[in-house]
Amino acid sequence: MAAHPIRMFADDAAVRHVGEGLLARSLPKAEWTHEAHLAACLWLLRERPDFVPERDMPGTISAYNQSVGTENTDSGGYHETLTQLYIKGARAFAGTLPEGTSLVGAVNALLESEIGDRSWPLCFYSKERLFSVEARRMWIEPDLAAIAD
């Protein structure tokens, strides 16, 4: 069981609200939760073919952070390795879903999966490596286990 209760989404509109709010930099800071990060990622993968998460997410999250007063520093704000890892996880998870799965059904299933757990990155990375300045600034390979492609 996760240390934090999972905050599920009520419907497709709630997921789109997060994704659109991220892109428009209008999402209230309090709504930019772990679940919101994953929901926005899956929404972008499913409904925004013009947005390439691996390429576009770093600038999008960094700009959003700045818009809500969060500094992107060596100890806070945008984290490249975590972002890219969760994109990989969300992309792989999306590929396992049955055709016709609703957006909210896909997001809530992702949140309930091992990928949705806040500790999932620690299956691949030691805390020291994952929370290093290097990992925050750029993608670094895991030191505990390989990530399946």
Contiguous low-pLDDT stretches (5 residues minimum) are: none
> Average pLDDT, to the nearest integer?
96
C-alpha Rg, in Å? 15 Å
Count of strand segments: 0
| CA-CA gap between termini | 26 Å
Task: Give the overall form.
Answer: globular
Measured by DSSP, the beta-strand proportion falls in: under 5%
Instruction: Return the structural class.
Output: mainly alpha
What does this structure look like?
The chain has 149 residues and is mainly α. 51% of the residues lie in helices and 0% in strands. It contains seven helices and no strands. Helix 1 (12-24) crosses helix 2. The radius of gyration is 15 Å and the shape is globular. The model has no long low-confidence stretch (mean pLDDT 96).
List the helices and strands and how they pair.
Elements: H1 12-24, H2 34-47, H3 53-67, H4 80-94, H5 103-112, H6 127-130, H7 133-137
Helix pairs in contact: 1-2, 1-5, 2-4, 2-5, 3-4
Quick structural gist:
Helix content is 51%, strand content 0%.
Fill in the keyword field for this structure:
globular; 149 residues; mainly alpha; 51% helix
